[in-house]
Amino acid sequence: MYRTTSCNSLRKEQIGQSVTLSGWVNSRRDHGGVIFIDLRDREGLTQVVFRPEEHAAVSAASHSLRSEDVITITGNVAARLPGTENPRLATGDVEVVAQSLRVLNKAEVPPFPLDEEVGNEDVRLAHRYLDLRRAPMLRNLRIRHRVVKAMRDYLDAQGYLEIETPILSKSTPEGARDFLVPSRLTPGAFYALPQAPQQYKQLLMVAGVEKYFQVAKCFRDEDLRADRQPEFTQLDLEASFVTQEDIFSLVEGLLQGVFRAAGGGEVPVPFDRLTYHEAISRYGSDKPDRRFGIELVDLGDLFANSQFKVFRGAIDAGGCVKAINAKGFAGITTGQIEQLTEMAKLYGAKGLAFIKIENGEWKSPIVKFFSEAERATLAEKMRIEEGDLILFGADKWEIACEVLGRIRLRIAEIQNLTAQSNDLNFLWVTDFPLLAFSAEENKWNAVHHPFTRPHPEDVPLLERGQFEKVRAEAYDVVLNGVEIGGGSLRVHEPDLQKRLFEVLGISPAQQQTQFGHLLKAFSFGAPPHGGLALGIDRLVMLICGAQSIRDVMAFPKNNRGMDLMTQSPSEVDFKQLRELYVQSTAKRAPSHAPAAS
Ligand code: ASP
What we know:
Radius of gyration: 30 Å
Strand order of the largest sheet: 6-9-10-22-21-20-17-11
Number of helices: 17
Bound molecules: aspartic acid
Strand content: 15-25%
């Protein structure tokens, strides 16, 4: 027998009982020949003492124990000596006096201490099985389990069916780059790993499933930005005969259930809503963090006839003048102003105008250009007070908003505005644009994906070619400035879908080869449908308070897309390639980062 109980269960009430525990040696201390170990299993720690005067042979054997050895002990539960209790440990009032010891497996010295914060993530990833033994990591895995279970329970109760869709699927041109899998049985042909089960779930709606969900692995071969993984997990869902309102209340209830189950707090519903235009205009972001103010204020009216050429010029050119008030930040250093200016330039601004309000004075290189009336109106509009810092954006609307939006976030970071916050600030962002023009490709692309439904009021605009004005019935759900999911109502009419493909530059011939299955399915009576996908990794990260999505994934890739533990991707035999009809054009063998040790 390996165990009668766990390492987190013994309390004063069990004193005198005989117990058997199994686990890992967490730590070992030698107090003048008496060996103490903390024995660890998944549930917690129990102190075990080996007393030479009571059990000489067992005690002698305990001297060879080392951290991470796997052992089974049997012994009696005893009270710790008064004064040696450990209130930080659930089992801290007791210890087990070992009568027998079985070493099940010895362990090498681990490459990093498991009971401390480990700085080097590559070392952790190369030995992930050790990293996951650490309590914070195990806690994250548990929370993730609870989150996913709550999702399944909730959707099951709402009548949703969990249905698996293929991992070997078809490459389509929209969206990110595909991971491809060569087909041995069809020489020269490839499967693609799904970027999302989007088309399959829509086909399930045509199939009459009505309510579908899946905890779905998705694959996107993108350049890895911070906190992106080539494979990640979504809660994917789709329903027929639904409106946006139906989807919103479903997802609000779902998130409420998830946060409750995972101990993440009470989620206030219904969530606030902002249109995309409003979000950009007021916060300079389509995923605004609304735990703090610093809203963008439009000053177009004020400066439309100004003598200050920079502002007036921006407005005359069809742009705008906007500003934010960073309350109490007049003490900003020159270095910080320079940093913010650099940031503004990075996002397309020519510079960053500012006013500091210090000792009753407006300190700024630009106020000399303002009239008295402009000053007064500005003071009123921006609610200017002593100690404030006003920052301006005068540019095309998109640029001014984005620049001030970025600066707004940076200021909140510098001023630590959200560090102490336990707020769960959920928000729906609605009415995204349907299409965006790519100057690089000289064509229109879908903002969400090509199956997204145009806003009914804007279909005439689509017909008139005013593509930039067409809104989509697409929405994102945002938590504390992080996009945690998004979706849309879909096109279900074959003609409208063909028209949209056309606008996206997909010729009728391409439509047939790439999306023929979908168009055909739509011709057999497709119900109106819509859905959404939530990013499980990111959501769990927020609930856990983890710093990175890697911390809530059991076996993530590093930021170069490599699994440092298995050293993948790796080369394969020439024979394997030949069987797949694949010839490599790579000039040199893949360069692997040296195995961390
Ligand atoms: N498939 C979409 C995505 O991955 C979500 C959706 O529209 O349901 O972003």
